[in-house]
Amino acid sequence: MNLFAKLTESYDNKTNLDRLASRFHALSEIGATPDFGATRVAYSPEDRQAKELLKGWMREAGLRVREDAVGNVFGLLEGSRPELPIVLAGSHIDTVPNGGHFDGVAGVLTALEVAQRWKEQGYAPIRGLEVAAFADEEGSRFHASLTGSHFMMGELDLEAVKHYRDDDGLGFEEVLRADGLDAARAHEAARKPDELHGYVELHIEQGQVLEKQGLPVGIVNGIAGPAWLDMRWTGRASHAGTTPMGMRSDALAGAGEFVAVLDSLPEAFSPTAVATVGKFDVYPNGSNVIPGEVKLVVDVRDIDLGSRDRLIDEIVRVAQEIAARRGLQVSCDVNIKIDPTPMSPLLMACIRQAVEREGLPAFELTSGAGHDAMVIGRRVPTGMIFVRCLEGISHNPAEWASLSDLAVGLRVLDDTLKQLASSP
């Protein structure tokens, strides 16, 4: 698949977006999968290749480029008053396994395009504009997301990630060392919140709200808080042919019952709550062996902190009840737990003005997915721009945003960043 051709085939090109489309295409080829998706798991060789390509584009744009000790990449367009806090914009370029080409990438490439156009047009902002690509946003490497932005905001340190292990059993320091990074300097990634005047993240919606509204862009008013529960179901592995049904301690049967029940739990607590099991490992994974152990991850989210945490308590209670009834053991450990994050009213107002200048209604919506903006937004004024996503499909090779919608998002982002970077 030629992503450049697909992006540009139905776009009238009133504004030259060939460079933006070609960069989407170039990244799509790194970690390309047979399903026409991409796999760029954080700190992998593919992730490294993409970062080096991005840094080259940043230098081409005339930005001052650096990468911190945990793999966050930054490109700075200097402001006329360097003593002032800067404006930050971006997202991430790592993917889930066999993911799409727009999640995260759209935010980084549009922010870079804004900075490069300002440089080419001779526009000199008062405040510096820094383009960011945060490391390990997806959490696919260590099953704990938003790693880079957590380090940048001082919410993670090396001690806090000592327990991180990837699917090959490699620890955080070992993985970073293989990527050419020095985890011992991870503390240097932390930045003071008062260094940042604001953060703006453009992202595909990953939902169908904008599509149903017939709108190319929307204004995010808040981000639901995710919590990940690591569950380990333990029974007894035994022969599938010689162990009577009534004498089994089948970890998979218990975990399977739990997953089936989980589907009905969120609606009892909140209309916006969701719970998902997307990772499921069975041991010893033999066709003629009754499973003795199952490991799974439960992803729980809601925009209301209280209802989300009550749902978590109920999920744990239900798991324990099923395990006890079946003679199994189950452990439930919260791996990550992030509070919901409201967006800054000031930045929402800036985005609203930019949207209205496009002749569009300023439509607000909530993000059910987690983003780096939710980490940064706890300490720095933060805003998000959503771009329409075809059928709401994301984390999938079929993920799609049209170039015409991205063009609207780019103009809204440009306008918003100008408002922020021009304020003394």
UniProtKB/TrEMBL annotation:
Domain Peptidase M20 dimerisation: 223-324
Protein name: Zn-dependent hydrolase
Names of required cofactors: Mn(2+); Zn(2+)
InterPro entries: Amidase_Cbmase (IPR010158), Bact_exopeptidase_dim_dom (IPR036264), Peptidase_M20 (IPR002933), Peptidase_M20_dimer (IPR011650)
Binding site for Zn(2+) 1: 92, 103, 203
Binding site for Zn(2+) 2: 103, 138, 395
A matching Pfam family: Peptidase_M20
Co-factor note (free text): Binds 2 Zn(2+) ions per subunit.
Subunit relationships: Homodimer.
GO molecular function terms listed in the Swiss-Prot or TrEMBL record: hydrolase activity, acting on carbon-nitrogen (but not peptide) bonds, in linear amidines; metal ion binding
Keywords: Hydrolase, Manganese, Metal-binding, Zinc
Species of provenance: Cohnella thailandensis
Family: Belongs to the peptidase M20 family.
